[in-house]
Amino acid sequence: MAPVKTSRKFSVDDFESVKTSPWEGVRNYEARNLMKEMKVGEKALFYHSNCKNPGIAAFAEVSKEAYPDYTAWDASHPYYDAKTKKDDPRWFMVDLKFVSRATHFVPLALLRFLSDSNSLHPEINYIQEDGLKALKAMDLVGRGRLSVQRVEESAWNAIVALAEKGGWEEMDLKVKGKRPAKSAMTELKPKPARKSSTRKTKDDVKSEEKEEDDEDSSDKALQMKRGTKRKTQGEENSSVPRRRTRAKR
To answer: How many Å separate Cα 202 from the centre of its chain?
Structure first.
């Protein structure tokens, strides 16, 4: 069993050290439902948040599918929830395995800068127009507070390229003017045939109960990547292969 953390802070250094970690502490229905769709072998982006320079720091992989988050029953744990019961668990988690660090840390500031850009910059033209378009559509840019998000295949590929090649170090990434709020959510879809927009599932009707902001209850977050093949069943496309992740420190 992977070690459970009793602190809300969990950095890429911690992740690399333990190698495998449960993604406990998710207390948001939408994020929980996304995790329940994850399959072994699907990919994730490890994202640092709640820090001065948030961004994508590493790549991970789902090593165990969703199971009850037992930290919710532990009154001494930071993620304790008195309303959930062992015979009727409300919260779930997956185990993630550390794969590798991003050679170049991909800051949220860069993604927001690109989201507001009308054209590619010479320094990173290797992501091409399709990559720029995919990055603009990422939930991470439009609604960063949700700790578990879908990542489309095209956006995943652009992130991988940025992490491998870098090149923006001398760019001024300050976004001028106020960025318009985005309301659209992307939907998790396990099969490539589905669209990739987000929405809450029917199971979230329970959200009439006040949901706690997942970002406040967990220092790690993750984003999944779609469109990759599951390692266990190569013929099926992974729903949330998502190399989705974001870790907070």
So the answer is: 21
